[in-house]
Amino acid sequence: MALFLLPLLLAGCGLLAGCGSGIHLSPAAELTVSASSLDFGSVAVGQASAPQPVTLSDTGNAALSLTGIYLGDTSDYSMTSTCGSSLVPLATCALTLTFKPQTTASLSSTIVIADTADGLPQTLTLNGVGTAAPAPAATLSAAAIAFAGTLPGVASPAQSVTLTNTGNAALSGISIALGGFNPAQFAETSTCPPTLAAEISCSISVTFTPAAAATAYAATLTIRDNSGDVAAASQVVPLTGSSGTPPAPQALLTSSSLNFQAASVGSSAPTQTVTLSNPGNASLSGLAISIGGLDPSSFSLATACGTALPAGASCSLSAGFTPATAGSLSAVLTVADDATGSPQTVALLGVGNAPSVVLSASSIAFPATVLGTTAPAIAVTLTNAGDAPLLIAGDQIAGADPAAFAETAACPATLAAGASCSISATFTPSTAGAAYTATIAVLDNAPGSPQIVGLSGTVLGLPPYHAYGDSITAGYPVAPAFTYPTLIGQDRRLAVSNYALGGDMACDLPTRQIFPALDDPAVAPFPLYTLMIGTNDVDLRGVNGYMPLFNYCEQASIAWLALPASFKVLATAPGVVTSGPGSLETVNNWNAWETATLNSSVTFPIALAGPGAIYIWPRMVDADPGTFTYAVDGVVAGTFNTTYNLAFDWCICTQNGTTNSLGFIRIPAVPAGPHTVTMTQTSATGTMRIVAIGAPPAALPAVQPSLPMVLVGDPPLQQLVPNDSCFIYPANCAAYPPDVQANVALFAGDGLDVIYAENHTYMFATPAEMSDALHPNALGYSELRYAFEAVIP
Q1: Residue 730 pLDDT greater than 80, yes or no
Q2: Cα(571)–Cα(567) distance, rounded to whole angstroms?
Q3: Which of 203, 457, 499, 611 is deepest in the core (most CB within 10 A)?
Q4: Structure pTM?
C-alpha cells in the first residue's frame, strides 16, 4: 500500500515555548480530527461514493507540524487534502475521502496522521462495502407452463408467470411475444410496463385453446429486455398443451358373445353375465336393453342397469338360456344408448338338446292270418337319435280295431341318447273277411309326440294241407274226424284235403291222387304235404327188383310236390323242341310229350344260376314200355327203362289197378348256365313220354322266400299176426325207414323243404292203438299226428 506523505517543516523552537528568556506559559499545539471513522456504506464496484470530508484543526496555542498523512488502501479509497505541512493555532485544513470499490466485499482501511502536537499519530478508520455494479436482472416464477385435458375450442383457465426485476437497475425494453410450433393455440396478457424498476414485479397470463381433440401442442413465451445489462436479452418459457375429448359417454361391454352350455329343451343352462361400463366423461343415457335375433324366446335377460349410467360407473347384464327347440340357437343382446357406436351387441349362442325318435318302420302290416290264430310278433325298433334323454310316458293301442292287436314294449321310462328299444305287436283276427287297422301311440317328450306306428292285418283262409297215402291216411276204418290229417289240421289251423285212397301203393300217388287233384304248388303260402305209404309196398319190397320202381314213384311224388311250378319246365312250355313224330298226351290232368318212333326226341331248355341237379319226370305205362336216353347239351347222361317184369302178372299195376305212373330221373352236378336236356327214344317199340323237367332252387336264380313243406313218414307199424305183411316180411318192414330217410336226404340235399317224420317211437301198433291188425284206432291216429307235428316248425 502506498503512503500518502505530507512533509512538514518544523520550526527551530517549540510551539509553546518562547524563544526568549523569562518565565511565562509554554505554548503547546493540539491536533483535533473531526471524525474518527467514516462509513461509505455499499457502493457498486467501480463506482465512486460521495466524498466525505474530515477536518483537521490546531486547537492549541502553538503551531504544529503535520509530518505525514498516510492512507492505507489506495485501491478502493482515495483522498485529497488542503492541509499543508503545518497548522497555526486555530487554523484548519480538510481531507476529502472517496470510496470506489474494486471488488464486491466489505472493504476497510485506515488513515494515519503524523504530527508534532503530542508526538502520537492520529488514526481515521474507513469502512465500505463493494457491491455489484448496478444492473437489471429478469427473474421468472415458472420455468414452463403446461396445459392438459383442454377441450377443443375452449380456452383453458389462465396460468400466470411473474416477471421480477431482481437486479439493482431498471429493467427496460420489455417486450413479450409467442412463438414456437403452435403459437396460435396460446394467448397472453401482461401487466408489465416497458420498464420495470429494481425489485418490482409484473404478471404475464397465458391461456390455451386447442383446435382439435386428442392432440399435443407446443409454443414458447419469449420476454425480451436488458436483463444483465445485455441489450435484447431474452427469457423463454416453454408452453405445452394437450387437448381432451369433449364430454361424452362411452359404452363398453366385457364380451361380444356368450356361448352357453348345451341344455335340454325346456331346461336352463347356467346364466352368464356381461358387464356394461361407461369410461366416458358424461352420463350414458337413453339405455334400452333387449334380446332379438333368430331365437329370442330361448334366451332371457335380467339387469339393474336402468336407463342411465353415470360416467365411470358400470352395471351387469345377466343372460339365461332355456332352449325352446332343439338344435343350434342364437339371439342378439342389444344395448341402445347415446354413446358413439350405439347399439352395442352381444351374440348369444346355445345348443338345445332334445330327444329325437326314429322308428325303424312307421307301420306294421301283418300277413294274412288265419281266423282265431295269432300272427307271429313283428317288432319295430324305437331309437333315440337325439342328444337328450327320451322320457317315455307310456304307449297304447288305439284306432278302429284295437282289440285285434296286442303290443309289448321293451322300452324303459328313460331312454338314453343313442339307445334303442323294441316295440312288438301281434295280430289275432276274430271275424272272417274283415280287414283290421289300429295304431300304437308312444307318448314321450320328443318332438312330434305321440309317435305313431300304424297296424294293419287281414284274415286268411286256412292254409292248405294235403295228405297223401293209403287207407290209413284216408282214415279207414274210423270216422274221418279222427284221422291224423284231420287232427293236424285242427292243431295247426290248416284246411285239410285228404286225397288218400284205400289200399294205395307208392305208384298210386301221382296217378290217382296228385295229378287228378291238379296239385302243383304255384303261389304262397305253399301247402303243407304229408306222404305216408302203407304196408302194401312192404309186401313187395325186395321182390324181383320192386324197390327201384318204388323209389321212382316216391321220388317223383316228393320232387313234384316240393318243387314249385316256377322251377319246372312243362312239356307245353315255350322253347320245348321235338324231332320226329310225336304229340301231347293228356292223362289224369297231365300233359306229356310222347314219341313212338326210334330216335324221336324232345328237347327242353333250362338255365342254372349255379351248379346243381336237373330233374326229369317221365311217364311209365305197363302196356307200352320203352327205353330212352337223356342227354345234357348233347352229352348222354344215362338210359331210362320203363319196363319192369315182376314175379306177378303186373308191372306198375298196384293192388288198386293202377298201371301207369310217373318215373323220376335225377342228373347230378350240372354246371351253371343255360342248358338243353334232350330225351331220345332208343327202343324200336313202345313209347317215350316226358311230362316235365326242373331244377331245385339251389341251382336257380331268384329263390323264393319259402318252399312247400313235404313231410315223408315211415310206413306205420302193424300188429304181428299171421298173414300180416310185417309178420310175413319182417325184414322188409324193418328196412323201409332207411329207404324213406334216403329219399328225404336226397331232396333235402338239393335245398328242398323235405323232412323225415319218424313215427315208430310214437305209435307202436299195440292192441290199444289199433282197430285191426293194419289200421290205427282214434288213439293210434292221435299218436301218428304227434309224429308229424313233432317236425313241423
Answers
A1: no
A2: 13
A3: 457
A4: 0.49
